[in-house]
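Study this pair:
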Amino acid sequence: MIELNINSPIEEIRNPLFINKGIKVFVKRDDMIHPFISGNKWRKLKYLLRDAFKLNKNHLVTFGGAYSNHLLATACAGAKFGFQTTGFVRGEEVKNETLTLCRLFGMQLIFIDRESYKHKKTLFDQHFQDHPQAYFIDEGGAGVLAIKGCAELINELPEVYDHIFCAAGTGTTASGIIKGIIEGSIPTLTHVIPILKGADFLKTEIEENSGSNTFEFHAGYHFGGYAKTDEELLTFIKNFCSTCGILIEPVYTGKMFFSLFDLISKDHFNRGCKILAIHTGGLSGISGMINKFNY
């Protein structure tokens, strides 16, 4: 049986900005859940793994880009819990640290052109129609079971926070957090930071998946789009890591923490409030951007 209960720690981070504004900031360290099945990746995968187990499916098939944290998490989870794994990789065939780790954990990789990649269920059917033990997992683990896993984060919190911050790629984690808050009747406002450019569609999907529109959607912190960055963001990440002792990266957590600091500096929050930032892991993705730091 797959053990599901893994509770990550919470720690306070201190900064002169927070002291000046009279605000306390805490971090839910989901990056510490597991070295490779970390952060929201475990929360999204855990009920999918249990569902596959119950259905006697022993082959996990999923999708991601060349630096996908989700592919790596699925590969590691498959090795840990006895599943065969296959990953469809978007784009031309490449070699990098993330994909090497996927292979080390036993994942078979299939590189797919970007147009064909858009039709994931079709790809699954074409390649695995004769494999009844194959189990489809959408990109990023997105879906109802993933939302259920992410919602449980709220039950782990030792106290009520006034605000919760979360980065959003597919919006699954944010949907789960909002759903958990609603189900627990907790007076906490969620702040969603999309890391995509033109992410208005994501706001609509989060509303539909969580059953609520009671969250703030801060669409101005994408820095050009998915995996895009600039010197301002990189400088912030360097300063954050060197003063907090917590590693963040440019794709997700860097943008989320930048938004948090920026909104605090602009007096978006009342003095005396408590804010919880969700560290959603994804640190292996930094390997694809390491040359941008110019060290």
